[in-house]
Design a protein that fits this description.
This is Cation-translocating P-type ATPase. By secondary structure, the chain is of the alpha+beta class. Helices cover 51% and strands 19% of the residues. Helix 4 runs antiparallel to helix 6, helix 7 packs parallel to helix 12 and helix 12 runs parallel beside helix 25.
């Protein structure tokens, strides 16, 4: 017994104020030691004393607040998200229908009867029914959230909504039974409209969040969750990976993911360990070598003895790193929520003071207390105090920016990405697969006593039977150059060093310079050329024919075509680019020099990447991290904004706030520019919304503001926000895209996206 961690995927969060409400609720619960809420990933991580709290009680707190706990199974979670979307749509249709009926009745009263006031008791009762039906039908869930918030002393947007909605209901009832001069119908109408606008704003946020989540899921390839366990008798059975124990033996065929951490006890192969190292050149593995779960077995069949399971396994260690990073990540409160923090208690206070003023102030000049005017003033303040446009301001900017980003192949997963990006002053980039393509390619062929075509032909013939990725690079380059080559007569691969082959009648060696020297080849005259190629960060292979070195082949990771331009755009925006990589310092500096990066962190392990991000944050920098591998995931989570390359790994994508479809690096600065523009729109929207509400609340304190003006203010403020969000886009002919157009991961290159969008 002691401290326990529980992580939940939560439905129903629509803004960072929801996240703050959850934090406050848990902070006031005995036994809870720490809580972390990730709005972007819709997750809540609770650390609690299981001597004082049970898991059920921890879950009950979330559910009492009106949020749902989704199933940990991804398929079921998707179904729950679909159900939430359907429920939100159903609520909006019902509330929207009621609003249309109320608006029609008011229009009939004004046009046909020529007045605002109710025509009959039947009209009053009908509007009362619509108000109660909307508030306690589709709006019932809001009341649950409001009650639980008030019970815990939390004042949020739900409290403000219900203050306005109940003010309308109370005002209508007072007009119906106490003060005949009260505009009964219009007070009831306000209750309907306020509730409908709130449901609309939450549904808008739900659409954005759910579609983003589903778009991410469509990028993810579920890792195999089974393994082939081999018994002592040699029998093979398919078992869940979770059922494996230390010392169990599993067989892994070529092309399959290695399911567990272990040691090879039979076979040899090349293994792609970029899952851990981030580097593209696979490691040669044989009996006695260790392998990492999640890496890819490329060429041979392996029999592996399990050495680590559960919390000790590499992928679980990464998962723990991600959880710790989320717990340490600086909290973000949306701009609207920072304003609401003071606006909610402010409106409630002004309403109370307005009532007291008209009850007490008349006594000063010898008049009787004006209870009716005080009640009207207080109710009008509460009605006008609910900023309908406020609920729309951020989601509308998010929809506009999200649609524009999707057109450029960028998936913005949360509003945080829009808000934080303008403050980012450092962008940290992984090297392999981010700045570079992440695949070996021929960078240079150097010939000695022969021409380059002859060197390439000899190398390709020697490697024709090899399955090593470097061999694939040589063969692919030969094909691109239309160089014809023949199969070797004899072929032998020397693990981790090179190959021997007989090409025509010549003995050929192709491999590392050190191995060639061990084989008696004199490389002294070519030492400068070897050093020059290595200085560029290239892997050097010597080509030896008939005992003579006839050439060198420099193989490297090709730099992306738009990398240098992207770095230039960062500098133009006063952002410092930083490269962080697990590769050696020589290779890292060579790549950095070519693209224009001055600050380089090389030989960095996965957990150290996160620590380096944390150090930058502790120095008061806002940091974005760009990466594509599992080894980048903790750093992506730790960063203020994590940006994943969509052609990367599942865990990296899940850990990010922004996903770039395909592998184009320029999307980073496209996202920055869109984020800047969207945040500017958000600020403009909020100023517009609060301008209407500020004037309205001030006017309402006089007790002379008719509820119809509250409704007019709602319509005008929402219309102004809509116009500001979309007018420029519509006039320019750009579509408002709320869908995220996804390409298949392998075909997801959207290199023309920026040009097309511009």
């Amino acid at each position: 017994m002691g401290t326990t961690h529980e992580q939940f995927n939560v439905g129903g969060m629509s803004c960072s104020f929801c996240a703050e409400s959850i934090k406050k609720a848990y902070s006031r619960t005995d036994g809870v030691e720490d809580v972390d809420v990730s709005l972007a990933h819709e997750e809540v991580l609770v650390e609690y004393d299981d001597d004082l709290l049970s898991e059920v009680e921890v879950k009950d707190t979330l559910q009492d607040l009106g949020y749902t706990i989704r199933d940990p199974d991804k398929a079921k979670r998707y179904e729950q998200q679909q159900a939430e979307l359907a429920d939100g749509k159903r609520r909006l249709l019902i509330a929207g229908g009621a609003s249309i009926v109320v608006a029609a009745l008011m229009g009939w009263m004004f046009v046909v009867m020529g007045r605002f006031e109710s025509a009959s008791l039947a009209m009053d009762i009908l509007n009362l029914g619509l108000a109660l039906g909307t508030m306690f039908g589709p709006g019932r869930y809001i009341k649950q959230k409001t009650f639980q918030s008030l019970r815990r002393g939390i004042f949020n947007q739900h409290v403000l909504l219900e203050a306005g909605a109940f003010a309308g209901l109370v005002g209508g009832l007072l007009g119906l039974f106490v003060f005949p001069s009260f505009p009964t119908v219009h007070f009831f109408a306000v209750s309907v409209f306020i509730t409908t606008y709130h449901i609309l704003s939450e549904y808008t946020s739900l659409i954005v969040r759910t579609r983003a989540s589903q778009a991410v899921q469509s990028l993810l390839d579920l890792q195999p969750d089974t393994a082939r366990r081999v018994s002592d008798d040699g029998d093979v059975e398919e078992v869940p990976v979770d059922d494996l124990d230390v010392d169990d033996r599993v067989r892994v065929k070529p092309g399959e993911n290695i399911p567990v951490d272990g040691e090879i006890i039979e076979g040899k192969s090349t293994v792609d360990e970029s899952v851990a190292t981030g580097e593209f050149i696979p490691e040669e593995k044989a009996e006695g070598d260790e392998v990492i779960g999640g890496s890819v077995n490329e060429t041979g069949t392996l029999l592996i003895e399990v050495t680590a399971t559960g919390e000790d396994a590499f992928l679980n260690q990464v998962a723990r790193e991600i959880e710790e990073a989320r717990a340490m990540k600086p909290g973000i409160i949306q701009l609207a929520d920072r304003v609401l923090k003071y606006f909610v208690p402010g409106v409630l206070t002004i309403a109370a003071l307005s009532f007291l003023f008209w009850v007490v102030a008349p006594l000063a000049w010898g008049a009787a207390p004006n209870v009716q005017r005080g009640a009207f003033a207080a109710l009008a303040v509460l009605v006008l105090g609910y900023p309908c446009a406020l609920g729309m301001a951020t989601p509308l900017a998010l929809i506009r920016g999200g649609g524009k980003a999707a057109d450029r192949g960028i998936l913005m997963r949360s509003g945080d990405a829009f808000q934080i990006f303008p403050d980012v002053d450092h962008i940290v980039l992984d090297k392999t697969g981010t700045i570079t393509v992440g695949e070996p390619a021929i960078s240079e062929v150097v010939a000695f006593g022969a021409d380059e075509v002859d060197v390439l032909r000899t190398a390709a013939s020697a490697e024709a039977f090899s399955e090593h990725p470097l061999a694939d690079a040589i063969l692919e380059f030969a094909d691109e150059q239309d160089v014809e080559y023949a199969d070797p007569n004899d072929f032998d691969s020397v693990t981790g060093k090179g190959v021997r082959a007989t090409v025509a009648s010549d003995d050929v060696l192709l491999g590392k310079p050190g191995w060639l020297s061990d084989e008696g080849i004199d490389l002294s005259k070519r030492a400068d050329d070897i050093k020059r190629l290595q200085g560029r960060g290239l892997t050097v292979s010597g080509v030896v024919r008939g005992g003579d070195l006839i050439g060198l082949i420099g193989i490297g990771d090709e730099i992306k075509a738009d990398a240098a331009e992207t770095i230039r755009r960062m500098r133009d925006a006063s952002i410092t680019p930083v490269m962080i990589t697990g590769d050696n310092e020589r290779t890292a500096n060579a790549v950095a020099d070519e693209v224009g990066i001055d600050r380089v962190m090389a030989d960095i392990l996965p957990d150290e990447k996160r620590e380096e991000i944390g150090r930058l944050q502790q120095a008061d920098h806002r940091v974005a991290m760009v990466g594509d591998g599992i080894n980048d995931a903790p750093a992506l989570t730790q960063a203020d904004i994590g940006i994943a390359i969509g052609a990367g790994t599942d865990i990296a994508i899940e850990s990010a706030d922004i996903v770039l479809m395909g592998d184009r690096l320029g999307g980073v600065m496209d996202a920055y520019e869109i984020g800047n523009e969207s945040y500017r729109k958000t600020r403009q929207n909020l100023v517009t919304a609060f301008a209407f509400n500020g004037v309205g609340v001030a006017a309402a304190t006089t007790g002379l503001v008719h509820p119809v003006f509250a409704m007019l203010a709602m319509v005008l403020s929402v219309s102004a926000v809509l116009a500001n969000s979309f007018a420029g886009q519509l006039l320019s002919g750009d579509g408002v895209n709320t869908e995220f157009a996804l390409d298949e991961r392998t075909d997801g290159d959207v290199s023309d996206g920026r040009a097309a969008a511009d």
